[in-house]
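To illustrate the input format used throughout this study, we show a single complete record. The first block contains the structure-token representation of the backbone; no residue identities are included at this stage. The design step must infer an amino acid for every position from geometry alone.
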């Protein structure tokens, strides 16, 4: 994957994706609508306070990168904007509904756990459980045209690991034990073994779920027979 988005570019792209899904009757977005979306206080991290001039400059850069298209509706003099980021006739980048939901929320809110992603994507896509989220995350990490997502090192005192998108280069996050902005990487054999065990547990959970579903199907057939 060869793409590096600034914070403002990532926010604009994610807002266009979000509104395309949640409010399709108001999409594409005008400059004013997109500015309001970028500055929302809910479902945004960090919360921004961008003016229209900054958003317009961001859009101009995205248009140069062929990631946004400007257009106006029939009979309208107001320019409106739609993304060409993915799932369009303009590019090869394609995501499933679940993959797109995860990427959109990661672009909007930064690194998150599978549980947080399941809750925060509920307006964009549907996940039956957190294991389905983890499965989609694995797909995003292992795709041939990716990876698009990275699994961060386990944080001390936290039970769940977090995942981050890779559309803005190296993932950096403040670590209370080091200087702000230190790159999170596994720090030794213990962390590596812990990550391997956690991955194994995740895989075992998914396998148990598949077996439970299979058993339920067999029981239903037996009852019907």
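Output of the design step:
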């Amino acid at each position: 994957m060869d793409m590096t988005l600034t914070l403002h570019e990532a926010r604009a792209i994610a807002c266009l994706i979000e509104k395309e899904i949640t409010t399709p009757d108001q999409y594409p977005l005008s400059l004013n609508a997109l500015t309001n979306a970028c500055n929302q206080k809910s479902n945004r991290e960090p919360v921004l306070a961008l003016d229209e001039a900054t958003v317009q400059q961001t859009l101009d850069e995205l248009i140069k990168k062929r990631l946004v298209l400007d257009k106006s509706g029939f009979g309208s003099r107001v320019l409106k904007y739609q993304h060409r980021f993915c799932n369009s006739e303009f590019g090869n980048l394609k995501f499933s509904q679940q993959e797109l939901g995860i990427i959109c929320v990661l672009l909007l809110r930064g690194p998150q756990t599978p549980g947080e992603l399941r809750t925060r994507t509920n307006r964009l896509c549907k996940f039956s459980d957190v294991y389905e989220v983890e499965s989609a995350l694995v797909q995003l990490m292992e795709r041939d045209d990716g990876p698009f997502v990275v699994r961060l090192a386990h944080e001390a005192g936290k039970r769940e690991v977090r995942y981050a998108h890779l559309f803005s280069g190296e993932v950096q996050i403040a670590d209370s034990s080091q200087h702000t902005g230190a790159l999170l990487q596994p720090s030794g054999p213990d962390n590596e073994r812990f990550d391997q065990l956690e991955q194994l547990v995740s895989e075992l959970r998914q396998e148990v779920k598949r077996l439970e579903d299979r058993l339920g199907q067999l029981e239903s057939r037996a009852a019907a027979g």
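Structural context for interpreting the output: DSSP finds seven helices and five strands in the chain. Strands lie at 29-30, 68-71, 80-83, 149-151, 163-165.
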